Amino acid sequence: MSGNSGRSSGPHLHYEVKYANKVLNPREFIKWRLDNYDNILKKREESAVGIFGKANKRAAQNGATVIAQGTCIIGGISTEGTVHIDGKFEGVILEADVISIGKTGEVIGDIKANNLIVSGLLDGKIDCNEVQILSEGKVIGNMKYNELIIEEDGKFEGQGVRKGSKLKSRYDEIENKINNIIVTPSHQIEHEQKDS
């Protein structure tokens, strides 16, 4: 919630932090974030080594886009940073480093990102390197991935294809043989009965 009240110098953000249904002082979380921000950036840079052995600062330098609970957005997001969704989003999210959908989050649309973490609901087309469907997460749709992790009680309904997979299904070929075996005898019986 934003507003301009009292002796403020302009519009500003109002929020609260809840943990285990208790309201906590947000100042401690802000202090923790500032104290740990350099460590977080350093770890991200160390883990994001590029082709030439240099750190990929792109992901570490971009901020987070947050869609809060109670917010509904229809449209598109293109970011090299992180997107966290606790509200509702309908549309397209492209080029994100990390997309996380919280327990109250609901996304209907196309997703293209490096990492996807789902605790809420995602219905659509997904193209991500790593997909994690957490214990209460639900994913419906078509998914392309390099790595897929589904926790117990996580749900995925749709079609999933691992990028670059050399595995090829022969089911269609076998299904035709099965159908010929099943269909042929019943047609023969019908023809024999008509001939009698």
Helix content: 25-40%
Percentage of β-strand residues: 35-45%
Net shape: elongated
Biggest sheet record = 9 strands, parallel
Q: How far is it from the N-terminal to the C-terminal residue, by CA?
A: 82 Å
* Total individual domains: 2
Count of DSSP H/I helices: 3
Q: Return Rg in Å.
A: 25 Å
How would you classify the quaternary structure? Answer: single chain
- The SS-based structural class is alpha/beta
Map the helices and strands:
Blueprint: E1 2-3, E2 12-13, E3 17-19, E4 22-24, H1 26-47, H2 57-61, E5 64-67, E6 72-78, E7 82-85, E8 88-101, E9 106-118, E10 121-133, E11 138-145, E12 147-150, E13 155-162, H3 171-195
Parallel strand pairs: 5-7, 6-8, 7-8, 8-9, 9-10, 10-11, 10-12, 11-13
Antiparallel strand pairs: 1-2, 3-4
Keywords:
single chain, 196 residues, alpha/beta, nine-stranded parallel beta sheet, two-stranded antiparallel sheet, 27% helix
Please describe what this structure looks like.
With 196 residues, the protein is an alpha/beta fold. It folds into two domains: 2-47, no CATH class; 62-162, no CATH class. 27% of the residues lie in helices and 43% in strands. It contains three helices and 13 strands, in the order ββββααβββββββββα. The strands form three sheets. Strands 5, 6, 7, 8, 9, 10, 11, 12 and 13 form a nine-stranded parallel sheet that branches. Strands 1-2 form a two-stranded antiparallel sheet. The termini are far apart.
